[in-house]
Structure formats: C-alpha cells, structure tokens
Specification:
The complex is a heterodimer of chains A (381) and B (387). Helix content of chain A is 64%, strand content 7%. Chain A is built from 15 helices and 5 strands. Chain B starts with a helix and ends in a 5-residue tail after the last helix. Classes of the chains: A alpha/beta (381), B alpha/beta (387).
C-alpha cells in the first residue's frame, strides 16, 4: 500500500512538489532574504538630517556623539526642515533640537528633542534612537546634579559648576560582551530549522489528505472489505507520510546548510532528530484524520495547526517566553526540533539530545493516544 | 454579475451545508487568534532581558532602570540564561558575578558580562542595557561629585532623589513623517509581525479552494455549467467569490479577535480589514489558477503551500522587508504579499487612511484581475483534458 501510494503520488507529481520543488524553492528564497552567514544582522549606515542651533554647545555634543559611533556609520547633514528631508527620502532620520538646550539643561527647564523617522526606519534607526535617549539621559544627569546641589544647600556657584562638569566616570559600569552558548543557532540557522519544522507539518498532512480522498471516493470502504488487518491501512498512509516527511526535511536541511554555510553537526544525530520530528508531526495527522470529514476540512485544520505550531515554535521569529508559557512552548515539536538542531550544531552528540528527542516522542505518544479517544467523525460518511 | 453571484451562492451553500465546516472555519482559527494575540498584544516591549542576580543592590538598581525603559526583565540562572538565548527566548542576558556586586557596593569600576542572542531585537535591547548601565554609573558619579562638593552622603542621596523628581525628563520624542508623534515603544519598526502572519494565513486558507475547483471539474459540474450560456470568466469569478468570502471572513475574524481580546494594534481596523479583503481577492484568484492548472488535490495542496510560503518570504512576511537588500525589495514588489505588507505598514505605523493606501490597493487589485484572467484561460484549456 505504501509503495502504491508513493507511486501514485509520483505520477500526480505531488511527491516531487512536496519533497523537492517546494523545499528547494523555499530555501533559495530564504537564502536571498536573509543575510547569508551573518550571525548578526549588519547595521546599515544612517543618513541624518539635522536642525540644531550651531551656538548651542550641548546640542553640538549630541550630534558629534552620534556621528562618532563605532557600531555603524551615521552621517549628519544640516537641514532647514528635517521632516521634509525624511519625507522626500533624502535622509533616513531627522534630528530636531530647538535652540536653548544648553540653557534649559542648566536651569533645569524642560526641553523637547525630536527624531523624525520615515519609511526607511530600520534596525539602525531603532538603535540610534536608543543611543540618543541614553545621551540625553547623561546630559540631564548634570542638571539633576546641579538641582541636587541646591537642594543639599551647597549654594548656586557650586551648582553652576557641577552643571558644567562632565560626570566623573571613574566608577563607570561597563558591559563586556559575553560568550554566547555554542548551542545558539545563527539567525539564519534558526529560521532554516523553524521553516523545515513548519513545512514538515504540511508535508505529513498529505497522507491525511489521501486518506480522506480515499474515503470520499469510496475506495477506503473497499479496502476495508478486504482480508487485511484494519489498522494496516492507516499505518500504510502514515508510513507514506513519514517517508515523504523525512525526504523533504533532509532536502531542506541539506540545501539550507549548503546555501547558508550553517553546519547542523553530526549527520547521525541530526538523522535521529529528523525521524523523531517527523514521527511527532505524523502522529498529529492521526487526530486530523479523525476530526475532518472532507478533504476541505482536513486542509483547513492542517493549515491552522501548522501555522499555530510554526508560529509558537519560532518558525518566523523567536518567541520570548518564560515560566508557564515557556513550558507550554517547550512541548511544541517545532520548538523541540529547533532546540535539538541547536544542540547538534554546537557539537552535541546523540546522548545530548535526550530532552528534545523525548519531547518529540512524548508528543507523538500523546497525539496517538488522543486519536484513539476522539470519535471518528469521518466513519459516518 | 447575476451568474457570478449564483455560482458563488451555490459554492457557499454547499460549504455551509456541512455544519462542521462552520466549526473548522470559525472556531478553529481561535487558536491562531490566541497565538498572534499573545505574541503581539498587550503593548510592545523594548526587548526581553535576563538578569542572573536580582537580590543585590546592583541587580535591583539595574532591574529598576531597565523596567523604567520598558524593557521586560526576568530573573534567571546563568546556565538557563545561555540556553534561553540559544533558543531565542530572550534578547540579552546580563551575568552579574559576586565580584561585580562587591565592586558596585564599594564604588569601584564594574564590568558586567552581557550576552546577546541572535534575535532581531537583540541589538536594540543591548543598547538599552548599555543605557541603563550608564544611568547607574551616572547616579554614582552624581553622589560622588556632591560629596566632593561638601554634602554629607545621606543628604546627597536624598537631594538627588528630590532633584530627580523635579527636573523635567528629557527623552527623544519619536515622530513619524506623517506628523503623528508616538512613544518610542510603538515605533519599533517590527510591529507588522501580526499583519504578516494574517497575510500568510489568508493566502493559504484561500488556496485551499483550489481543491474544490478540481473536485467540481472532476465531477463534471464545471462542464455542465459551461453547457449553459455562461463564460469561463463567470465560472472562475463565481468560484473565486465563494472562496473569497470564506478567506476574507477568516482573516477579518482573526484580526478582530486579536484586537478585541488581546489589544493587538492594527491601526484603523476598518482600513486594515479593507487591505485583507482586497488581498483575499488576489489569493482567491491564485486558487483558481492552481485549481485549473492541476488535476489532483494532493499536488494542488502541495503547490498551494509552496507558493504561499515562497511568496510570503519574498514579500517580507518571514523576515522584515526593511532589512532586505535593495534588489530584493524590488523583487518583493512583484508579490502580492509585498504590497499587502507595505499597505499594513502604512496603516499600522503611519495611521494611514483609505485614501493614502489606495495606490497599494490598486496594485493588489491589478494582481487579482491578472490572476482571475489567467484562471479563466486555464480553466477553458483544462476542459479539453481528461481528469
């Protein structure tokens, strides 16, 4: 039955579409979309249109601090109207500091600093805004010191002096870049793993669709009338899905590692992980086959389940979660699969994969059990 | 038009006759509502930071400074933090050692370890951490300079606290070129994530309609309809209208659900719903193309999934368009997802109204017209094939 199914799918090209064409197309596109081999996303240079009073000392400090950043290049050009410059696409971001910043800071009066973002607002702009916020905080700290000096009864001369002085950074608190875990997949690697997991959910669904189609066409009833164990039909369908799932995932991961230069580690360990992930995904289809009466319903359920598991498993973006939510997400087969690939990529062996493998197998077992308990809605057709 | 309506009506009645379809179409997407709502609802945060030490003064001060900057802070062990970063569960981890705590208490220079994840928000979060560290350093320097000027330690700290509350805050006001000022937290540039997922879902849900067209062709329904004085264009338009109703409703349902239950911001909801409605027409048109091109539901489903994922990736629904190289941004203009994404970006970030996004809707309508035309040509050709 498995061979017949796969042959039939070869004939109608769905095997080729599912296990070769789509995974390769998806990987090639992701390769174009994601900065290849870059663990960090490159921060683009930013062009800034600036409107400041040239005689305002501290406003000049803000501008020169921003243009002197080492993380990424910031070029500043004077502009009458930064808003218009950003609007016209001549600058990525506008900085407007109305005259009197220095004076206001000294006297502890409020002052507004505006940054204008446009369609070109990207990651660099976000970081630039965060840096500017920090700079202003430092400048404000001086006027706070001056105000505190008056409050502490030290007199206005001392307060004025303190407002002029840069704060002594002898007791500075600095950040030292730490060593990331060797199990940390790069942004590209995490996306490949997540997308492979998401796509797997669709690939194994194909077995369900053929089962439902057989039911609709009446061939399933005929098969059941034959002298074969009743469970063998479902097992054959699941096995065909399993083979297809393993093939498609292998193609995706191989293509992904070649295109992105990401190594997922020991082939044996990865193979075990792939088989467990495919088993977990396939077991989910047993539930779908009992829930859905028609191919159309099976399609809807499959799409929603795949997207929900894909999204919460980090196929599109990592999901920040901790505590109870984190524990729920840990049970997600796509999350466990990505986690396992992180371990193998960091040089982990089969023995290190205990948690993800057990998670995947437990998920498979729970789904199989649930599928036994759910009434078979399709049987009544 | 009457014929198109009649065909769409039949399609919808057939769909609704099976009561369980209602469950799958409208109750099941609640799962999606929950996932999108949890991820994008409840206001944006400036990142998620793990702190390995929250008992000491240093840990508590750092936590307070980060929380004030809208950063989500969670306590975590050093090892768990590394694992959480590896899995993208947090953006940055701050590892504080006993020496750091002692140095902070003693007023000596402190060097804490900061580890970044490879998430999109990691760099911005790391910058926020740096800013928080600078704030702590500034506070210490302020106390020191007041003491040097002759204030008693306790007086200096109290005076600083008072001054902190009286001196007006100085923060960047982020303003959009459309003239709408917004809080920094909302201007993260990645708030179209929820929209991306809805575009992906609506497109996929509509493509599931290709199977029903294949079924109708196999059952002779299409041939029978065309025997009446009805053109292939009307048949395709009627079928597509039926599928569009279902897909657009599902998209609207997910958006309204996330907005009402989880406070996900879509800009102006009616305008955002219009974008989804027009986008769903394109998706329904694509479903007709696939349903006329292929003769097997399995293959159609495979191609549908593939086309949906590839177009979504090219259109910026998996990786933000803003981070695309220029050449690829041009390529994304050839995908409906690319235009849907841009329309949503205008609506969500710039509070654009219907008039401002008309050009985007126009391009999407062009895609829809092209897909429906191609669908009817392919349907005519398919009639000469055995199925």
């Amino acid at each position: 039955m498995v061979v017949k199914d796969l042959k039939q799918r070869l004939r109608d090209k769905s095997v080729l579409i599912f296990s070769l064409a789509v995974p390769l197309a998806l990987m090639s596109v992701l390769n174009l979309v994601i900065p290849t081999g870059a663990d960090d996303i490159e921060l683009e240079p930013v062009s800034m249109a600036v409107s400041v009073d040239p005689d305002d000392e501290l406003a000049g400090v803000v501008v020169s601090s921003l243009t002197g950043l080492s993380a990424f290049q910031v070029s500043a050009t004077d502009s009458e109207d930064p808003r218009a410059a950003v609007d016209a696409g001549e600058a990525d971001v506008g900085l407007i500091i109305p005259p009197g910043l220095t004076e206001d800071l000294r006297s502890g009066t409020g002052h507004s600093v505006r940054m204008v973002t446009g369609d070109g607002a990207g990651l660099s702009t976000n970081v630039l805004i965060a840096i500017t916020d920090g700079l202003l905080g430092e400048l404000r700290a001086r006027s706070v010191t001056a105000a505190a000096a008056v409050e502490a009864g030290l007199g206005p001369e001392i307060a004025g002096e303190l407002a002029q002085n840069e704060l002594d950074a002898a007791g500075a608190i600095t950040a030292q870049p730490g060593q990331a875990s060797d199990q940390q997949l790069s942004a590209g690697g995490a996306l490949i793993a997540g997308q492979a997991g998401l796509f797997l959910m669709f690939t194994v669904g194909f077995g369900v669709l053929s089962m439902v189609a057989e039911r609709e066409n009446g061939t399933l009833a005929r098969l059941r009338s034959m002298p074969i164990p009743p469970g063998s039909i479902v097992i054959a369908k699941a096995l065909a899905s399993f083979v297809l799932g393993v093939l498609a995932t292998a193609v995706l991961l191989t293509a992904g590692s070649l295109l992105f230069g990401v190594s997922f580690g020991a082939a044996g360990a990865v193979a075990v992980l792939v088989c467990c992930a495919v088993a977990a995904a396939t077991s989910l289809t047993f539930i779908v086959v009992r829930l859905a009466r028609t191919a159309e319903q099976a399609n809807i359920v499959q799409t929603i389940l795949a997207l929900v598991l894909g999204m919460s498993g980090g196929a599109f973006f990592p999901i920040a979660a901790s505590g109870a939510a984190g524990a729920v997400l840990d049970a997600n087969p796509i999350a466990a699969f990505t986690r396992g690939l992180g371990i193998t990529a960091g040089g982990g062996e089969l023995a290190d994969l205990t948690v993800p493998v057990l998670t995947l197998l437990a998920f498979a077992a729970v789904c199989l059990l649930a599928s036994r308990l759910i009434p078979d809605r399709g049987a009544s057709r | 038009m009457r014929i198109v309506g009649a065909i769409a009506g039949v399609e919808l009645r057939r769909f609704m006759r099976d009561r369980s379809n209602i469950f799958f179409t409208f109750v099941f997407p609640l799962l999606l509502v929950v996932v999108i709502g949890v991820q994008f609802g409840g206001g944006a945060s400036n990142g998620r930071v793990l702190l390995t030490e929250t008992e000491s003064t240093l840990g508590q001060d750092l936590e307070a400074a980060l929380t004030a900057a809208d950063v989500t802070v969670d306590p975590s062990g050093a090892e768990e933090a590394g694992e959480a970063l590896a899995r993208g569960r947090a953006d940055v981890a701050i590892v504080i050692s006993a020496d750091d705590v002692a140095a902070y208490e003693g007023g000596d220079p402190v060097q804490v370890e900061v580890i970044q994840a490879s998430t999109n928000g990691a760099q911005t979060a790391a910058q926020r951490v740096q800013t928080a560290l600078n704030e702590l350093a500034a506070t210490r320097a302020q106390v020191a300079s007041l003491e040097d000027a002759g204030a008693a330690p306790e007086t200096a700290e109290q005076a600083l606290e008072t001054a902190e509350s009286t001196v007006p805050s100085l923060q960047v006001e982020v303003e959009d070129t459309s003239g709408i000022s917004q809080a920094f937290a909302g201007a993260t540039g990645f708030d179209v994530g929820a929209a991306s997922q809805v575009l992906l879902f609506v497109f996929m849900a509509a493509l599931a309609g290709s199977g029903t067209l294949i079924e109708a062709r196999r059952g002779g329904v299409i041939a029978r309809t065309l025997a009446a004085p009805v053109g292939t264009g009307s048949v395709v338009a009627g079928q597509a209208l039926g599928r569009w109703t279902i897909a657009a409703f599902q998209g609207a349902y997910v958006m309204a659900g996330t907005s009402l239950l989880f406070g996900v911001t879509w800009g102006s909801l009616p305008v955002a719903l219009t974008v989804v409605a027009v986008f769903a027409v394109v998706a329904a048109g694509f479903a007709m193309v696939i349903g006329s091109l292929l003769d097997n539901e399995g293959a159609a489903s495979g191609l549908g999934v593939g086309v949906s994922l590839v177009l979504a990736a090219l259109g910026g629904c998996m990786f933000p368009q803003e981070l695309f190289p220029d050449a690829l941004r041009t390529v994304s203009s050839f995908t409906p997802h690319g235009w849907g994404y841009r329309a949503f970006a205008e609506v969500q970030r710039h509070d654009a109204g219907l008039v401002e996004i008309l050009p985007y809707l126009g391009v999407l309508a062009g895609f829809a017209a092209g897909a429906l035309l191609l669908g009817s040509l392919l349907l005519r050709r398919s009639l000469s094939r055995a199925i």
